[in-house]
Amino acid sequence: MAAANLIFTEEDGSIGFGDHLLEQKSKVSDFENAGDLYKVKSYREITKLERNEMFVYESVPGTTVRHLRETAAGMEFEVEGDKDAQITVELEADTVYGIQIDGEPAGTMKTNLSGKLTLGVELEAGRKVSVRIER
């Protein structure tokens, strides 16, 4: 994926970003979607997304994300990577969220006072995993 394709608008209006196969850090700033400005940094070690200079998503190691959609109740996306990833997202502070991975319940978690929630996702090359996080 070329740097120009590091972030893009999906046909459904959601966001796709990141490239877990890149050997060198790449970034794109000032990508506009629905009136917001996004910035993405990605390569095999880390993927990070910001909206209007505020944290949205980070994974270690790097991941490729498709169809990221934030809703009033939470967030959903598809994620792909070569190995298991620790993913941190920012949601509403001090709130309990239910997590589903590939449609299966994966428990509940409470965000901290800054609204961050961290989860582990089992990944393997060539397979996308859907994640849904809802209040």
Can you describe this structure in just a few lines?
The protein is mainly β. The chain has strands at 7-9, 15-17, 26-33, 36-43, 46-51, 54-60, 64-70, 74-80, 85-90, 96-101, 104-110, 116-121, 129-134.
Task: Give your account of this protein's structure.
The protein is mainly β and 135 residues long. The protein has one domain (3-134): Immunoglobulin-like, CATH 2.60.40. Helix content is 0%, strand content 59%. The protein is built from no helices and 13 strands. The chain has strands at 7-9, 15-17, 26-33, 36-43, 46-51, 54-60, 64-70, 74-80, 85-90, 96-101, 104-110, 116-121, 129-134. The strands form two sheets. The chain has a seven-stranded antiparallel β-sheet with strand order 1-2-7-8-13-10-11, with no helix packed on it. Strands 3-4-5-6-9-12 form a six-stranded antiparallel β-sheet, with no helix packed on it. The radius of gyration is 14 Å and the shape is globular. The N and C termini lie far apart (34 Å). The mean pLDDT is 95.
Relevant terms:
mainly beta, Immunoglobulin-like, seven-stranded antiparallel sheet, 0% helix, 59% strand, globular
- From N to C, what is the helix and strand string? EEEEEEEEEEEEE
In percent, how helical is the residue content? under 10%
Overall morphology? globular
Number of strands: 13
Q: Could you tell me the mean pLDDT?
A: 95
Approximately what portion of the residues adopt beta-strand conformation?
over 45%
In terms of per-residue confidence, which ranges show pLDDT below 50 for 5 or more consecutive residues?
none
How many DSSP H or I helices?
0
| Name of the level-1 CATH class | Mainly Beta
Count of spatially separate domains? 1
- Biggest sheet: strands, sense, closure? 7 strands, antiparallel
The structural class is mainly beta
Separation of the first and last Cα atoms:
34 Å
Strand order of the largest sheet: 1-2-7-8-13-10-11
Q: Quickly give the CATH architecture.
A: Sandwich
Radius of gyration: 14 Å
